[in-house]
């Protein structure tokens, strides 16, 4: 696969950098795209949900213990990670008044899980409940739960709000990633390694989990900073141009356009 980074006179082919002889001075600002390809948890390669019930996804791993009975003293079978898919086959309210769903996790595994651990696109009001959880979340938790919403509630009227929250969280993450990368990547070690310095930033290991959420950044090599590329803002302008969130998105995209 050939990946082309939009850098002045610089092309990346097969993982190797080919630098043109006409490359300008090192002081030139290079704007490079960081393509963070979505993995199994994102829209491009999503896992198939189990069959035999209404599809639901885990959004709160603090409550996602799968038990043999709809009781808190039931035998623990496993804990399902955030983003895990299940099929709801029934429900029951226990003696404490807590509702448990009977779910299928695999063809061989079923159990009971607390209702609040899950959301289902087919259940009215679950988009609103997930939005409240996103607003109550911070940092990467907000991004991961926002990704679940955007992947599963495509027609929700609340989607513009989530797009804006998702973009703001990604923008905050870019500032932190810039700080961490500059602090942890030694200029002496990069020079000794022999690879172009910008490639160390593009391979910075803290980018990995954002990769899995489909987040894309722009990297300014001179300033050594990442910026969120604004895809959620662009979707707001394209799909919801008259929404209040689109007005905010337009303001956020203006300085990004200047950088590009």
Q: Would you kindly provide a written description of the structure presented here, covering whatever features stand out?
A:
This protein is of the alpha+beta class and 260 residues long. The chain has 3 domains: 1-29, no CATH class; 54-119, SH3 Domains (SH3 type barrels); 137-217 and 230-259, no CATH class. It is 35% helix and 21% strand. The chain has helices spanning 126-135, 139-152, 159-184, 187-193, 197-202, 208-211, 231-239, 244-259; strands at residues 10-13, 16-19, 31-34, 54-58, 65-67, 76-79, 85-93, 99-104, 110-114, 118-119, 217-220, 225-228. The strands form 4 sheets. Strands 9-8-7-4-10 form a 5-stranded antiparallel sheet. Strands 3-11-12 form a 3-stranded antiparallel sheet. Strand 5 and strand 6 (76-79) form a beta hairpin. Helix 2 (139-152) crosses helix 3 and helix 3 (159-184) packs antiparallel against helix 7. The longest helix has 26 residues, at 159-184. The chain is globular, with a radius of gyration of 22 Å. The relative contact order is 0.14.
């Amino acid at each position: 696969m050939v990946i082309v980074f939009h850098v002045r006179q610089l092309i990346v082919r097969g993982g190797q950098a080919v630098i043109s002889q006409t490359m300008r001075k090192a002081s030139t600002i290079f704007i490079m795209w960081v393509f963070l390809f979505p993995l199994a948890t994102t829209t491009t390669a999503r896992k198939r949900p189990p069959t035999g019930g209404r599809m639901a996804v885990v959004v709160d791993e603090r409550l996602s213990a799968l038990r043999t009975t709809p009781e808190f003293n039931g035998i623990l079978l496993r804990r399902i990670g955030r983003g895990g898919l299940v099929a709801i086959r029934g429900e029951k309210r226990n003696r404490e008044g807590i509702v448990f769903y009977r779910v299928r996790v695999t063809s061989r595994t079923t159990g009971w899980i607390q209702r609040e651990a899950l959301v289902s696109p087919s259940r009215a009001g679950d988009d609103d409940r997930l939005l409240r959880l996103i607003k109550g979340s911070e940092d990467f938790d907000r991004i991961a739960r926002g990704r679940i919403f955007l992947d599963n509630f495509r027609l929700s009227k609340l989607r513009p709000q989530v797009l804006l929250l998702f973009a703001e969280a990604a923008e905050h993450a870019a500032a932190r990633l810039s700080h961490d990368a500059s602090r942890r990547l030694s200029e002496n070690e990069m020079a000794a390694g022999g690879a172009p310095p910008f490639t160390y930033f593009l391979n910075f290991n803290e980018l990995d989990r954002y990769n899995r959420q489909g987040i894309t950044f722009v990297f300014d090599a001179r300033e050594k900073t990442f910026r969120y590329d604004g895809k959620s803002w662009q979707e707001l302008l394209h799909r919801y141009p008259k929404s209040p969130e689109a007005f905010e998105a337009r303001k956020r995209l203006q300085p990004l356009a200047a950088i590009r």
